[in-house]
Specification:
The chain is mainly beta and about 260 residues long. The protein contains two helices and 15 strands. It has helices at about 5-15, 80-85, and strands at about 30-35, 40-45, 50-55, 70-80, 95-105, 105-115, 120, 135-140, 145-155, 165-170, 185-190, 205-215, 225-230, 235-245, 255-259. It has a 15-stranded mixed sheet that branches. Strand 9 and strand 10 form a beta hairpin. The chain is globular.
Amino acid sequence: MDKSVINKLFMFAAFSWLLIDATASHAQASTADVTMQNWAGYVINDAAYSSVYASWVVPSVDCSAIAAGGASASYAWVGLGGYNDAVLKQNSLEQIGTAQSCNGTTPSYAVFYEFVPAGPQFGGAQYPLSAGDTVTAMVVQNLDGSYTLLESATAKGATSPKWMFNTKGSAPGASALDPGNKSAEVVMEQPGIVGWIGRAPVANYGSITFFNVGFTKANTASDEISKVQYFEPLSGNTLSNFFAFPATLSPTSFIVYQI
């Protein structure tokens, strides 16, 4: 992607200008509620999507209940292709967001991105992140089929971003049949952690509000919006609920609660 285009996208995202949903004139096929074992948020699928974007305030995680040497984590992100990856067992997902975690009783916060099935990558010291920062993240499909992932962070009370991050790439499993853009997601996730069997406990984030949510479509096919409930299979408890989730094709904001 041309550097000037990237700069314009960052300006567009970082300062939370009015985000217009380019799909508003297209018909919505249906709505559905989906239960998944490690996601809470919303997904849109059944078409092709050229971008997805959202903003949120990095939640403060409570690590007081974590035993010494223990760990927990919760990831907030936007992505393309993830719902198809999780449900249809396709392999391509491009995502970027924030990782909130506990290493014992010590909280940590970081920018992360991933071209699934490759593993997650984390921002270094040049991209410091703190609870209370406002983050804007975006995934954009380029004309050559690759993807640009963008993120900015603005400290609480500040008027301009303290950093802007971008990277370009493609999911290793991407192909003509699985291009990695057949769904769009805005999600709070319980991620896997190296060294754990299965998934580590969810870092106690309380709630998170996603706002300025939107996406653009790469074609005119009708699509389906799905609210995703988080279901913990061992206890049978639903760990996240929604509030203010409009029954429209592209909600501009919603809250995910941890309960």
